[in-house]
Amino acid sequence: MTGSLLHNPLYASPRTTLHISQQAPSFLKSRSSTLSVPYPLSLLTNTESPEQWAAYENLFLACLKTSDDESAFICLEKLITRFGPDNERVQALKGLYQEATAADDAALRDVLKQYEEILQAKPTNMPIRKRKVALLKSMGKTNEAVKALTELLDVSPIDAEAWSELADLYLVQGMYSQTLFSLEEVLLVTPNAWNVSGRDGQAMMLRQD
């Protein structure tokens, strides 16, 4: 297993991400002859390792970031075959692929509609809730993103990342009281988050101005 494939490209430099994505041809070719057992029979096998599927996911993300959509699709298909189309994490990765390859705003609206349909069937699907927030933000729908985040927090009120993201959205809108409230919630969930303490103070200074 190539070590770099176990590093999440979301937090890697562009150079590292490119290096990971360039391994796609050799990585996928080396596994093309491996027998793939379809879901749910795949759950009964013990011949695979968590690292293998982490590598597929990281390679998928790196290929999307470097516009290698073909390799990303192959990785996605492997993950769907292994874990099933109803797996929440797989659904989020599929949505991410559709977002990245959307040709226009109409295609993005279709993806958003799919997210809403999934959430109607299962409101506790947190990966899809987070993708919905990210998509709304990318489409410039700040108010709708705030609404989606508050709905997410109704389901999972101890999600510090969601509270922090909500604080950011409130801050850019000049809603300082709401920003402070959200940051205080982050501190309640993660009291040792010293970086949030600094942001809290910064928000208070902005409010006083």
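^ that was protein a. below is b, sequence first then the tokens
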Amino acid sequence: MRFFSLLFLVGFLCISTSADAKRKPRNKFVEIETTMGLIKVELYNDVPQHAENFLKLAEEGFYDSILFHRVIPEFMIQGGDPKSKQALQGEMLGSGDIGYKIPAEFKDAYYHKRGALAAARDNNPEKASSGCQFYIVQGKIFSDTDLDGMEKASGRKFMPEARNDYKTIGGTPHLDGAYTVFGQVVEGLEVVEKITHVGCNSSNRPIEDVRILKATVTRK
């Protein structure tokens, strides 16, 4: 009887685990190989439209040879402009797009802490994202006073976890609720940091090109 109960319990756990796996597909990862090192990002599958679009473009080779065309220390590095593949040295970039937008997918659990992967956008009132341009947050550390002021100005409260992250590892909290965060750097934050220290022109474009050599989808 005990043996039967044990077998039943093991079988039940296996079925439950299998069902959970079907309900909650694992997040996927993309390795972004750049001229300054490797950055690996995890994509949140519960921000589906943004994650699936980024995966699709990576698999198609869209990001291969694209530049990080906008770099601002203590803020972020931005890429994804298709015009940057063949851009002349010093050419103004940032207006290139893929011809469609992605509806905003804001989630309180995902915010602009250091290493966040988020979608760029123009000033459309729906806050819909560019279909291809993205940025990775470097940011800086903020104090409680700083964060209190942002809350007062925006009318939005920071969750305790977000507040703690902004005070310890840093980020760009003023972007929360305005741009969709759909992933996070899991390896290569030092590469992001290194890119933010390159010399740039008055348009924040690196003087020496920082290029994505290849973006590769991985399981982990």
